[in-house]
Amino acid sequence: MATTQSSSEFGFGGGLAAGPIGAALSQNWWAVALRGLLAIAFGVIALLRPGVTIFSLVLVFAAYIFADGVFAIVAAVRTRERVAMLILEGVLDIVIAAIAVLWPAITAAAFVILVAVWAILTGGLMLAAAFRLGLDHGRWWMAAGGLVSVLYGVLLLASPFLGALVLTWWLGAYALIFGGALLGLALRLRALKPA
Predict the structure, then answer these.
(1) How far apart are the first and last CA of the chain?
(2) What is residue 81's predicted lDDT score, i.e. its pLDDT?
(3) More confident: 128 or 9
(4) pLDDT (tens digit, 9 = 90+) per residue, 20-67?
(5) Is the pLDDT assigned to residue 9 strictly greater than 50?
(6) Is residue 10 part of a domain?
(7) Using CA atoms, how far apart are residues 155 and 163, in angstroms rounded to an integer?
(8) How many domains does the chain have?
(9) What does residue 108 show for φ and ψ, rounded to 5 degrees?
(10) Domain that holds residue 26
(11) Is 5 a domain residue?
(12) Domain-located, residue 144
């Protein structure tokens, strides 16, 4: 005889506080609320101060790539063979980090251009694939998705600095919605918290 598992065992039913995960989250509802508040604060900053947000993201990227470069060089120097490729990688990372710090606008524009090229290439591939798909299988939906992707990429390439601003706004909007969802979850968890 086959056994069936209830949907609550997989986290799809049985109430929010059902099971050990729900109980742990309801005990720590405040941590979920703090995550939501931080996301909302980030979203507001990204929407109201997009230049500051872009600059901050560039600096975080620069700090990461600088640390990565230093550790690549350390790893290469600490080996007996003194791996030249790792040393070269480390030096390149440090140079790129310096460029990001010295010219953050160029770094932001390069990121936007990367996104634009990706959108154009993937959109073109979707358009090509759409014409191999049958009409009854959603050819026009796939073609529409490919066309939107190509247009998005072209618009980003036409104005990368405006594209960086728009990407920051989208990031801010996402953070606001995500933060709101977490706050809603936190309030629900708080209501289910055992006394």
Answers:
(1) 41
(2) 67
(3) 128
(4) 766 777 788 888 899 999 999 999 999 999 988 988 888 998 999 999
(5) no
(6) no
(7) 8
(8) 1
(9) -65, -45
(10) 21-192
(11) no
(12) yes
pLDDT for 5: 46
Residue 39 falls within a domain, yes or no? yes
For residue 94, give both structure tokens.
């440090």
Q: Which residues contact 147 (CB under 8 A, 6 or more apart)?
A: 123, 127
C-alpha dist (Å) from residue 114 to 92, 110, 163: 19, 6, 11
How many residues in total does the chain contain?
195
Three-state DSSP string of the chain: CCCCCCHHHHCCCCCCCCHHHHHHHHHCHHHHHHHHHHHHHHHHHHHHCHHHHHHHHHHHHHHHHHHHHHHHHHHHHCCCCCCHHHHHHHHHHHHHHHHHHHCHHHHHHHHHHHHHHHHHHHHHHHHHHHCCCCHHHCHHHHHHHHHHHHHHHHHHHHCHHHHHHHHHHHHHHHHHHHHHHHHHHHHHHHHHCCC
